[in-house]
């Protein structure tokens, strides 16, 4: 009888993930395996994989093991590695709670963008301290779709984003392929692109084309990048004014609330849901790895 490998399926504002618990880092999750798992027809389906590993067991996280027991080894749906996933880290902690590894309260999670502090509230929402945004000075960029183009803000949330304010989210088009961003030299490792419209005071809506996944229903790091870009556009810089800036960001899959504090820390709150759990056939996984 062949061994089976446990998985779960979860989402945060419909940014969906295949969760693969592998505490001792025993699985060889090749890019081909990840892409097969995320395939919505021949696999389980998801925007990415949350590989759940003890920090001490992963070479990229051992240095963080003293601060955070668990490492989120995040992979995009095409198999590529990403530094950070804001919705993913909330779902990751929801999984840790579901599996009985942690209780309500504050939990540290190691990520490629450093240790993130995550809080599980009684109402079910999960808040993550995302760290601060980096806005490379004089590094603004241009995003295009067909004949239209917009000036965009280069915002780094541990991973790269280009944030464009548009008149209508439909102007982003089908987003079947990555929207061109110029100059390409601003993003040597590729970029996530957000299109944003205003909905009211401190309230915006966005669509996103994610590096390594295509258009998704939500992107947590993207929503944070959007909140920071909107705040700067609106003349709000909490580090200067000493007043936190809060934005509600509507995404196709729900709503996220983002607050930037005067010390630069950005907090994001939203839902995180475990949908299902099951077993992957080892033989299928072995074939997928080839
Ligand atoms: N959906 C994620 C971001 C996932 C990584 C991204 N595609 C990248 O390559 O940087 C989020 O919620 O932040």
UniProtKB/TrEMBL annotation:
Enzyme Commission code(s) on record: 5.1.1.7
Catalytically driven reaction(s): (2S,6S)-2,6-diaminopimelate = meso-2,6-diaminopimelate
MF GO annotations: diaminopimelate epimerase activity
GO cellular component, one term: cytosol
Keyword Isomerase appears in the UniProt entry: yes
Marked site positions, Could be important to modulate the pK values of the two catalytic cysteine residues: 161, 210
Pathway: Amino-acid biosynthesis; L-lysine biosynthesis via DAP pathway; DL-2,6-diaminopimelate from LL-2,6-diaminopimelate: step 1/1
One Pfam family hit: DAP_epimerase
Residues annotated as binding substrate: 15, 76, 86-87, 159, 192, 210-211, 220-221
Record localization: Cytoplasm
Sorted UniProt keywords: Amino-acid biosynthesis, Cytoplasm, Isomerase, Lysine biosynthesis
Active site: 85 (proton donor), 85, 219 (proton acceptor)
One GO term (biological process): lysine biosynthetic process via diaminopimelate
NCBIfam families: DapF
Known function: Catalyzes the stereoinversion of LL-2,6-diaminopimelate (L,L-DAP) to meso-diaminopimelate (meso-DAP), a precursor of L-lysine and an essential component of the bacterial peptidoglycan.
UniProt similarity note: Belongs to the diaminopimelate epimerase family.
Subunit structure: Homodimer.
Identification of the protein by name: Diaminopimelate epimerase
Gene source species: Streptomyces brasiliensis
Higher taxonomy: Bacteria, Bacillati, Actinomycetota, Actinomycetes, Kitasatosporales
Gene that this polypeptide is encoded by: dapF
């Amino acid at each position: 009888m062949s061994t089976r490998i446990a998985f779960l399926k979860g989402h945060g504002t419909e940014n969906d993930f295949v969760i693969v618990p592998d505490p001792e880092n025993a699985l060889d999750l090749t890019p081909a395996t990840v892409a097969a798992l995320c395939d919505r027809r021949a696999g389980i389906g998801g925007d990415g994989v949350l590989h759940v590993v003890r920090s001490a067991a992963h070479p990229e996280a051992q240095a963080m093991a003293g601060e955070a027991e668990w490492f989120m080894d995040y992979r995009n749906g095409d198999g590529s590695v990403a530094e950070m996933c804001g919705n993913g880290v909330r779902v990751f902690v929801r999984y840790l709670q579901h599996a009985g590894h942690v209780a309500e309260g504050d939990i540290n999670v190691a990520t490629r963008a450093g240790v993130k502090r995550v809080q599980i509230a009684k109402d079910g929402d999960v808040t993550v301290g995302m760290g601060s945004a980096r806005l490379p000075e004089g590094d603004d960029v241009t995003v295009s779709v067909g004949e239209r183009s917009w000036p965009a803000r280069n915002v780094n949330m541990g991973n790269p984003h280009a944030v464009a304010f548009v008149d209508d989210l439909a102007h982003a088009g089908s987003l079947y392929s990555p929207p061109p961003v110029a100059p390409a030299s601003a993003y040597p490792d590729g970029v996530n692109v957000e299109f944003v419209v205003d909905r009211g005071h401190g309230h915006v809506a966005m669509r996103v084309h994610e590096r390594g996944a295509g258009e998704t229903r939500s992107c947590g790091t993207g929503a944070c990048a959007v909140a920071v870009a909107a705040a700067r556009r609106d003349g709000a810089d909490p580090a200067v004014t000493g007043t936190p800036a809060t934005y509600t960001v509507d995404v196709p899959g729900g709503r996220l609330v983002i607050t930037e504090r005067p010390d630069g820390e950005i907090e994001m709150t939203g839902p995180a849901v475990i949908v299902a759990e099951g077993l992957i056939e080892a033989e299928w996984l072995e074939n997928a790895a080839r």
